[in-house]
Amino acid sequence: MISPLLTDLYELNMVQAYLDRGEDKEAVFEFFVRRLPPRRGFLLAAGLEEALTYLETLAYSAQDIDWLKHTGRFHDNLLDYLKAFRFTGDVDAIPEGTVCFPGEPLLRITAPLPMAQLIETRIINLMHFNTLIASKAARMVLAAPGKILSDFGLRSAHGAEAGLFSARASYIAGFSSAANVLAGVRYGIPVAGTMAHSYIQVHTDEAQAFEDFARTRPNGVILLIDTYDTEQGARKVVDLAPKLKADGISIFGVRIDSGDLIAHARKVRKILDDGGLKDVIILVSGGINEDVLLQMKAENAPIDGFGIGVNLDSSIDAPSLDCAYKLQEYAGIPRRKRSEGKATWPGRKQVWRAYDLDGRMAGDVLSVETDKHPGETLIVPVMRGGRRLAPAPSLDEIRARAARDLARLPEPLRRLEQGVTYPVQVADALVKLADEADRHTAGK
């Protein structure tokens, strides 16, 4: 469990001020992404289930209250409020695995103001990172259709929780497995792994290392062949295969982790095929991103799968999203921020999505939730009074939704073409509400 004190101090400061002034009317906050990073054309929503679990379980222990008290920063009314705190608000959201775009609320919180404010930091933390990684993973899935993709990035993730969330988010996007064992325990994600170069180096003979490992791990044997000489390693696999086969052990694949992966894969494929091992697959790892995947696809590289590490778990080319959790309504009055470059649309919103005759996404409309537009509505109620409205969907169900939505992307977005903008129209009703919010702010 993550401590509820994993938050920004200013959340507690504001809640203290709200309580002192009696500001506890109903507030509406929405989490959304302002704009896409360069080279991104879409987002894949993720993190909702983690956010709902956080809201369901958020509570302050006696030790938490004692620590806050001894800081001398807070009054008894805040400490008493936190002692009894349970989330009792409403949540509406775009389901996980749904393709979405900037300005569209991924999550809406409706609750008394102190409650809705208090949860801001952790909600952003969960929704931002999961959506960031799912969106990155989705690009890789589109770049390598039909290939095995596995999350190898735990060791380079920015913390243990980030490693877990990366495994889950990438699996939602269409990855087939993760090397993270705890992800298998917690989420039921298939766990995959081979061996490290150190295992080979421990042995004085590479072929003996292969044999020892195969006999210890006879199911789905994958051998790492690039410790010394990649092609020589492949030839040793060919020589070893009949001996293992006689004992009922089949080599499933080989992995290459260095050098010119395409060139090595072609040479290794020929060695394996000439040696009668046409069914042995080739996996590669090391420096894999969507550009590499697209290049390998274009060159028809004989590679069956990819282990992807830091480029996934740290989303190196775009390590963050410009996102926000902003007040949209308070005490029944629409509110908006007008800061330069960060202006918001007020009110409780809905997104309507239209499709063309081929079933591809054709455009979205963003408006107030009481407006009416043709198309599929994306934001749905998921929690009322602090309780889920339905059991959490399975990871397979979320994964199926992601596959469906990625298949329905316009073809330029599926090809990861740069400079392609998906149309999201702001409806007149929302513009009108923004004018109303501005007049209220001006006191008119």
TrEMBL record:
Residue ranges occupied by any Nicotinate phosphoribosyltransferase N-terminal domain in the UniProt entry: 5-127
Transmembrane regions listed in the UniProt entry: none
A molecular-function term among this protein's GO annotations: nicotinate phosphoribosyltransferase activity
SUPFAM superfamilies, sorted: Nicotinate/Quinolinate PRTase C-terminal domain-like (SSF51690), Nicotinate/Quinolinate PRTase N-terminal domain-like (SSF54675)
Origin superkingdom: Bacteria
Pathway given in the UniProt record: Cofactor biosynthesis; NAD(+) biosynthesis; nicotinate D-ribonucleotide from nicotinate: step 1/1
Domain Nicotinate/nicotinamide phosphoribosyltransferase: 149-329
Any one GO cellular component localisation term in the record: cytosol
Protein modification: Transiently phosphorylated on a His residue during the reaction cycle. Phosphorylation strongly increases the affinity for substrates and increases the rate of nicotinate D-ribonucleotide production. Dephosphorylation regenerates the low-affinity form of the enzyme, leading to product release.
Reactions mediated catalytically: 5-phospho-alpha-D-ribose 1-diphosphate + nicotinate + ATP + H2O = nicotinate beta-D-ribonucleotide + ADP + phosphate + diphosphate
Name by which UniProt lists this protein: Nicotinate phosphoribosyltransferase
Record lineage: Bacteria, Pseudomonadati, Pseudomonadota, Alphaproteobacteria, Hyphomicrobiales
